[in-house]
Request: fold
Amino acid sequence: MKSILVTGSEGFVGSHLVKTLKETLYKIVPVCHPLLVPKRGRYVPLDITNAESTREVMKAYKPDIVFHLAAVSSVAKSFNDRPLTYSTNIMGTLHLLESAKQLDKPVRFFFVSTCEVYGGGENLTETAPIVLKNPYAISKYAAELICRDDGVENIGWIILRPFTHTGPGQGDNFVLPTIARQVVEIEKGKRPPLVEIGNTEITREFMNIGDIVSAYKLSVEKCQVQEIYNIACSKGHTLGQAIQILQSVSKKKFEVKVDAAKLRKVDIPVLTGNGEKFSRTAGWHPRIKFEKTLEDLLNYWRAQVR
Reply:
């Protein structure tokens, strides 16, 4: 039985992906940071910024596939902590690749990059110019280049560039979860009927996490090595549109206020992609409507806020 080692398995996307991959015939090796090991389930603790520990784990489990999700994934946090961002996203990726190389066997290495490397635009294809506007994007593109290093002979890399996605379990340091949490706090009388937000005009795809992990599962089965794939639905929504939907389904009315503290240092007005290459390869198309995604977020926070 072939094995898949998943880094960042304790995270938002990783936790959903591990559940989905368990439906396959692969042996799943869920790896997570030692300080973030969940209370339930069996996980392999690993700090990927530690080269020696990474070698030991890779040698012990000898995976056939590495699905690398572990990262500092917040743009805001990347501005606030560049050293951690670069150490985790760049050096962590390098440690995994070097450790996989030393296994002396073919390894497929799925690196989850980001649409942020494009720096903005509409209907962006994989050949669109790279425009790096924040430390997060810089770190992810640097890691892409490390994956593509010809010196790693036995590694069949596949780079995935997902566009914006959300859903239950995503931290409230991301935009839609923080709005959903505020709405629920208003519903429960824990805050006045006012949602504070940054730029309401930004446009993103806001795909559902269920569609994303479905795409990741298919990528393992269908994608060709030494290729880059956008995972995109090609349809954007503004934050203003999201707020209007949340206002229509909230149990209490609320107003909206733009908070200057929530505005990014470098904002990208529009970021939507062209996912035709991946769709042709994997037969994937997003199925979950934006309204359902927002409903899922609200229900998640209704269960969390006491």
